[in-house]
Design brief:
The protein has 792 residues and is mostly beta strands. It has 3 helices and 46 strands. The protein has a 22-stranded antiparallel beta barrel. The chain has a 6-stranded mixed sheet with strand order 8-9-10-14-15-13, with no helix packed on it.
Amino acid sequence: MLTVKGIAVDSLTKQPVSYVTVALEDPGTKAPIKSNLTKDDGSFQLKANAGKPYTLALVFVGYSTKEIIIPATGTDVNLGNILLRPSTKQLKDVAIIAARPLMKQEVDRISYDVAADPESKSLTALDMMRKVPLLTVDASDNIQLKGSGNYKILVNGKESALLAKNPSDVLRSMPATNIVKIEVITTPPAKYDAEGLAGIINIITIKNADQGYNIGINTRYNSIWGPGLNINTTVKEGKFGFSGYAGFGRQNKTSNPFTNTQTFFADQSVLSQSGTTAYTGNYKYGDGEFSYEIDSLNLLTASVDFQSGANDQQSLGLTKTKDANYNITQQYLQNSFNNSNNKGVDAAINYQLGFKKSKDQLLTLSYRYNYSPNDQNNQSLFSDTIKYTQPNYRQYNNSGNREQTIQVDYAQPFKKFSLEAGGKAIFRNNFSNFSLDTLVTNSNEYQPNQQQTNDFNYHQNVYSLYNSYQLKLDKWTGKAGLRLEETTINADFSSVGSNLNTSYNNFIPSVSIQRQLKNSSINFGFTERIQRPDISQLNPFIDQSNPQFINTGNPNLKPELNHVFELNYSRFSTGSINIGLSYSFSNNSIQNVSSLKQQKINDTIETVTYTTYENLGNNQTLGLNVNTNYPLTKQLSLSINGLLNRVWLKGYYNGGQYSNSGFVGNMFSNISYKFPTGYRIGTNTGFFSGNVNLQGKSSYFIFNQFVFSKELLKKAASVSLVFNNPYSKYWSGNSTTRTNDYYQVTNYSQTYRSFAIRLSYKFGKLNSDIKKNQHGIENDDTKGSTKNNGNQ
């Protein structure tokens, strides 16, 4: 056994330097063999197998990297004082913890290194989201950024069909080993589209390659979410490179109970619903990226990804309405069947031209096509009726999005200064063709209901120009930019002969400043963000799957403008800590609101609860986030990720003034222990306070997970056992809504306890990166309202 000792010393002050990352590396592959941090007195000691040469690397922010060759002498080496020279070059970012930091704070974003997390071999991509600073995954697997669902999620810097519809479904089935890192862009620079109120989540997937190939196989079985398989591969042959992955999964059928109670203030009558809802589904996905190096200055890349999924839902529920004297005034038993099929295809091609003067001077031309259709069918059958005249019915809705994008980007570096500029055009067509057929009792046949049949086409074109500047000094980094966007809208309801034509312009500034200290940094950011409503919020399709609770979109929605301020402090030594403050406000926020509305059913006037989207009033959020990673010992580590927001909401709707406020917070912690034999155990615990909206709030949620894993075949394979929430079969929660007319309480339960086994195997040997264009199309400009159910 070889022992290497030494003391890290500042070459100018001659004082020892603590917490320097020291690593013994293979001199050929540069792969780390052993690594550690220097102690308070600058000393270190590393042990490795004798009889082969090594490279000793010393890395620390503010100092030039020091490399020393350790020959294959077979004897212990004492290097004495090792002089580290202060660096005169500005580092690109502040690295937190060791040579493979879990977290990095850059001038405009925070990134989490998934590949450096030992649990990435055991958990899914959705599991890893819980560990990323500023991100939350709630009880229904909804991903939130700073407590908000108003963000954009990208894959490798571009919008992807994989995550356009149901990101949680894909991330739940995707192993974390497919991902290199997850970036949270809190102050998006001007090159990004102005949408995504809270920011942007960018998932960077694996693309390592040299001549040859690499294949990884990951499989799992979950007692709730069923079986799943994922295969990823990378191939490099000459100037051609390919990197991609594909997978599928199937959800086992689960049945969950629910109750809903609505008390009306006017007559003190009560509407109650109780029943069960069963879910099942399946999904497939794939992604491929191609690269062809024409020569050293010309690069051609292309990408294509797809996803498809089918979900079946059956709900059986009894609805009763009682007057103030508890007499039944109406009753019906509803048996509903819902089937939805969604697909997504995304293809892009990019040409990148380099210049001999500088490798970072680039001109990129890009084209992208996206098509995302969704078919939804509902059928409801009624029985045991008392004074209820709604006939059996079927609903159909064929909706989706077609989109084409053209973009040009130019980047020009200088000595301490760099600029980026470009232009973009998005041609977007959202569509929805919906109809309702009712059962005619006399003929026992379904006939179209023309009053609830419509064709909706929504054409939106976005034209934009941007430029962005970055200045790097010894201790300061600054980035500023301006984006100009013009949006034109043409919408028509062909079956009723109405249309909408409008346009608007937006100037979007962004400013990010980073001040680097010896082993920490302070970051400030300001930007404005636009949230354009997407098809799910614009679509006037009237969802009557629950006849007493109608849901529909609003084609007259206007974009929401949000003003965002960020202040972050990052520090690292033996462990790391990141503390951030944020404040944002909007004066025309898009809110989901409900009211009572009269509806004619078979010549009878029924009062139903009508839920839609509106631009309402003021939305303010003041937030505090804390993230820390700390190695308690060489084998035992602790990490905590927490967020606390204070929310204020105000709005005027349906003749009444509404306001609500409260604290929204979450905390996620991880404790893991690695045994020398390759076994690892860990526990993950999370608390989520629930959400606050304009007319109500939802209850808290607690998450718990135990992970056991073992590396096999010289770390080429691993097996993991995962236990989710073993203490209870169901997670039970509730949400409340209060309007000027009624008070509503919804109680729901969700199958929660689950067990999963995961196997992974990787073979092949590839080291360098597939060359890819540094700029491309990133359509991050629409607001989604995706909701997914369940946990891993």
